[in-house]
Amino acid sequence: MSRQAPTLEDVAREAGVSRATVSRVVNGVRNVDPGIQDLVRRAIERTGYTPNQAARQLVTRRTTTVALVVSGAGDSSDTEQNAFATRVFADPFFGRVVGGVVGRLRPRGMHPVLMFAETPESRQEVVSYLRQGGADGALVVSTHHDDPLPALLADARLPAVLFARPGRPVPLSYVDLAHREGGRLAAEHLLARGCRRIATVTGPLAVAASQERLAGFRDTLARHGDPYVPVAEGGFTVDSGMSAMASLLAQHPDVDGVFTANDLMAQGAIQVLRDQGRRVPRDVAVVGFDDSSVAVTCRPRLTTVRQPVEEMASTMASLLDDHIAGRRTDATSVIFDPELVVRDSA
Questions:
Q1: Other Cβ atoms closer than 10 A to 336
Q2: Between the CA of residue 65 and those of 59, 100, 108, 114, 175, what are the distances in Å?
Q3: What is the dihedral of CA 207, 213, 217, 220, to 10 degrees?
Q4: Which residues pair with 305 in a beta bridge?
Q5: Is 0.85 topped by the overall pTM?
Q6: What is the pLDDT of residues 252-297, one digit of tens each?
Q7: Cα–Cα distance for residue pair 313/103, rounded to 1 Å
Q8: What are the start-end ranges of the H helices in the chain?
Q9: Which InterPro entries does this one have (predicted)?
């Protein structure tokens, strides 16, 4: 005969408190003395009690699930949707976002559900999923400046926090980086190394972060008397970095310093420089952006502008938890500072 599952009454007896007190602790009611909370939690561990999630949701009106949405701009074809997902999983940036989100949510008993929203239909699916109670709120990583999803979530009054300032102002909280400052750090480092014929590989210029990094880089060089910076647009991928670097070398063969708007493109740029007999950093210095895993596996190891993605994602998740719980009602922004990490490429 199987042993009956532990109940609230079993936990109450073990802890020496009332059933109502155990219920308040299990359901996250915040006016319970911390000492009693610890007593109840230890009793739960000893008895092996597992809360009934369905019943708990009826009481708290929370699912303990949040949607982690990667949103972009594409068409409705299966090929395009598959390509979008492939690009996401190939970029170490998104893995760092997931790590930061999970690290913050897991200790709070919350879990992310990954969703893609690269078409009008899939964006509406996200809104409907949240409206129907599939998740308590959304963490949105947008890959396009004109992404309509933030406005849809704001109009529906759904709890949501964004990674990066939205292209169109909406009353939603967000975390972001001082991207112009990152561009400035890269420019000043290349100048300090003695580089004088400096170029840059940008990210997609439809992305606000790419525009900001380029603006900070250009402005700094202009302040040092360099009014013209050769530019090639990339797509945040190794292949696009290779294509952009090849284009720059064809038009400006005397280039001696390059700033790429992410580490993957820097890896591609270094490959092209190597193939064309240019030594890094002796002939051409290269600075990346992000300080991802690529920066330390690349040869030579990348000098790069660090974006604290894990900390930013963790803060994003914390803000969402505050909005869901009602501890925060107004939208807020948290801006992080970049940091130059000097290694071997520049």
A1: 17
A2: 15, 16, 11, 10, 20
A3: 120
A4: 289, 340
A5: no
A6: 999 999 999 999 999 999 999 999 999 999 999 999 999 999 999 9
A7: 9
A8: 8-15, 19-26, 34-47, 53-60, 78-90, 92-105, 120-131, 149-155, 179-192, 208-223, 238-251, 263-275, 293-297, 309-325
A9: Cro/C1-type_HTH, HTH_LacI, LacI/GalR-like_sensor, Lambda_DNA-bd_dom_sf, Peripla_BP_I
